[in-house]
Amino acid sequence: MSIILRGSPFSTFTWSARLALVEKGVEYELVAANLREEAYANFHPWRMMPVLDHDDFRVFEAAAVMRYVDEAFEGPALQPADPKSRALMTQWMSAYGDYVAPAAVRGVLIPRFVLAPRGIQVDDASVHAAATKAHSALRIFDAALGRSPFLAGNTPSLADWLLLPTVASGGGLTGPDRYTDDLHNIGAWMGRMTARPSFGATLPH
Ligand SMILES: N[C@@H](CCC(=O)N[C@@H](CS)C(=O)NCC(=O)O)C(=O)O
After folding, report:
1. Is the CB of 35 within 6 Å of ligand 1?
2. pLDDT tens, 4-20?
3. Which of 111, 153, 179, 181 has the CA that lies 20 to 30 A from 170?
4. Residues 100 and 137 sit within 8 Å (Cβ to Cβ)
5. How many domains, in total, are found in the chain?
């Protein structure tokens, strides 16, 4: 059996997929995604990462990869069984994709940690505006984490592993780029999430 994850250790979405693989106990090979290569469109039509190949089956989009990992392999369940908790998990995954990631990942992390180091000019005012947007979206997540220890209830689920890399990577930002300061429930949740071995096993380096 061959399991290949195409991505980068520095990509938040790849990190989420890696967290799911490690939590499930699935061995995989991380292969560098070369988005600029002509042939990369065969892996992902929008030239994004991650992409998972399991033997001759291919799936892209982090949330789909994470669900597939949970459902296709033996190991601990990463999604709640009861319909209400599962609906909450899906709700937070969708809210992450629509309201958090565009601001935090595209608006802040990529400009600061990918574009600026390559010498590409970054507009500070746009990054600060995106950080403010990310912060207000994350306040909703923070309120939810004041009501239960994890997004979908008492145990972590794919929603938590989808969010975790964005919050963890945000720790490296400074000044008005920071989008999690004063979100204390997210801070406490980070303590619970980073205490799990999967966090240390997947830390970008
Ligand atoms: N909707 C995609 C988003 C993935 C995504 O934005 N990945 C980033 C890295 S964290 C990427 O591939 N960026 C390349 C680019 O924007 O050109 C998913 O959920 O997998």
Report:
1. yes
2. 999 999 999 999 999 99
3. 153
4. yes
5. 2
